[in-house]
Each structure stands twice: as C-alpha cells, then as structure tokens.
Amino acid sequence: MTLTQNTISSGDIPRIETAEAAKAMCARLLETTAELVGLLDKETAMLKQGKPREIGSLHVRKSALNAMLTRDMAVFRRDADFIIMAAPEEISAIKDQHNQLQKSINSNQDALVAMKAVSESLLHTIASKASARTSGPETYGQNADVSTSAPARPAAISVNTIL
Description:
Blueprint: H1 3-6, H2 19-48, H3 56-78, H4 80-86, H5 88-131, E1 138-140, E2 146-148
Antiparallel strand pairs: 1-2
Helix pairs in contact: 2-3, 2-4, 2-5
C-alpha cells in the first residue's frame, strides 16, 4: 500500500457489513498498531542510547503506519456498532494493543523531553564558556606570574531556546 492510498477518507471505503470484513479490519488494526509500537520502542531505545541521527530512517515507515492507522480507525469508528457485534473477541485485543501503543507513545515522549533537556544544557554550557570574557591567552611572566596580553573580547555565542 502506498502513502497516497493511505490518504483515502473513510467515506471512500466500503462499509464493514460482514463478520469476515469486521475481523479483517480488527486484524489490520492489530497488525498496524503492533508494528507502530515496535517502531516507537526502537526509536525510544535509540534516543536513550544517544543515537538521534539514526531515527530519521524510521520516519517514512512510521508516517505510513500512522496514516494507515488513522484511516482504519476512522472506518472503525464509522462502523463500530457492527464491528463490536461481529468480532467481540478481537475488540479486547484491540483495547490491549491500544494501551500498549499509549505506553510506547508516552515513553517516546519522555525520551524526547530528556534528549531536549540534555541538548539545551550542553548548548547553555558551551555558550557560557564561549561567551566568558577573557583578557586573552594566559602566559607566564618574568616572576612566574600568570599574565594576559590581549584586551577582553565580547560574547561569541547566544542560545535561542524558543522552538
């Protein structure tokens, strides 16, 4: 399935009117959600390992899964009464999977917040050290005194924390 197929609205998809179609919808939701949970957990692990550059490789698949899940959930909501009646066993599994997805999303968000805090702290430390006014290089003088030979320089770096 291509990304353009994922953008079809639920109104373009036939109604779920058979038990087989309801079970197939539930199976698709479970499969998509499970793969999305796996990708989020992998991304979270990469963040915790300090490998944010490697996360970009997951973006395309994660976006495609999100689009499929969004579309299928719209269809599910539209035909929920019939699906719940036709596939009650699958509904319990979907609820459990949804809870796992929410936990993965929360864990991922926590890791992103921590990565942002560490990055900001590093930037502030670097900016603080780079902008400290110094009077030039320190050298030893005739009496082994530390002396400086250049005038003070202005701040070189500032940090904008507004996103």
